[in-house]
Amino acid sequence: MADRYAYIPLIGIFIMIAWGLADLAEAKKVRTVWRVIPALCALAALSSVTHRQMSFWDSDYHLWSHTLEVAESPFAHNALGITLMNPDSEMTQHDLENFVTPESHMDEARRHFERALELRQPLIQQNEDAYLWDIARTLNNLGNLDRLQGHMDEARQHDDGALKIYRQLAQQNPDGYLPYVAATLNNLGSVNRHQNRMDEARKQYEEALEIDRQLAQDNLAKYLPNTAMTLNELGFLDASQNRMAEARQDFEEALKIDRLLAEQSPGVYLPDLAMTLTDFGRLDAVQNRMDEARQHYEEALKIHRQLADLNPVVYLPDVAMTLSNLGRVDRLQNRIEESRARYQEALSLLRKLGQGDSKYAGDIARVEASLEELDKKVHSRASAVHAQ
After folding, report:
1. Range of the domain at 29
2. Within this chain, do residues 239 and 299 fall inside the same structural domain, yes or no?
3. How far apart are the two ends of the chain, measured CA to CA in Å?
4. Three-state DSSP class for 242?
């Protein structure tokens, strides 16, 4: 970490060394050839070392793995755990080949987070104020990992521990730590919602929303996205409890915020806008408001196609899922040919994505089942007409 801060200060020292040696060689009347050969050898050695050092920056995974080889630290363990949790964006294909299954890098991430906590325990005994936040952050990372792996009881335990620390820190510095309190409340709300503890989830989402709104009053650009995210979570919760009017109100406010943010910074917030449109479309479909569902899905599809042109690996799965959603709306409205075209395009995309990646097998099976159901519907209708 210190090396990069030495680059510029060392320029002067290197100039002194280079020119000093040149002046010394001139004074000693050293022949040119005996100046050039050592210089070339030094350049070759430095080039070799530089090439080796650059290889450590191929990916975050390679960088933090090398850091731990040099010297173990809780910071590096935590950073490597985060990298392993986000393999698609932080690891090269060569890095991924080190792991037998996709689940194995999650298990490795857990080992690094747990080691980071272990190393920080003695540090926090020496200076609690300096290391409390680091402990909370690692607990938060473990909670996120637990949710990804479906370990909800463990997620609750880790998020509760992080929340307790963040509340303590927020009492001393609310501006610095209230955002972490809100984010951890959202995480706990998600755990409770998945475990059908709806009343607890509502309390946590509502407290998080109150904090987000409070923070957004002072810094709209920074905290409005958090407000929209929490409104989305509340929308899901309201819908699951059949509070449809409240759910629509949540999604409408989230959509208004996402549109505003996407106008100001489309590269950053268009994905959020597409997600909210998709969530709203699902609510429309549940309420049998198919025309509105179509409108929301079609706008989401347009955005996903636009994003997929720039980053197909990340956004083509969203294109496929939105096509599938639109295919269902078409089928329910008896727009058979439109439905078939949507499903077939979705299936084609998913099969391409699924080549060598088993995680799309379930999505492929669902779209294939939807096409079969559509064919049965057409066949049943044709049989009824023939019988008449």
Report:
1. 3-55
2. yes
3. 81
4. coil
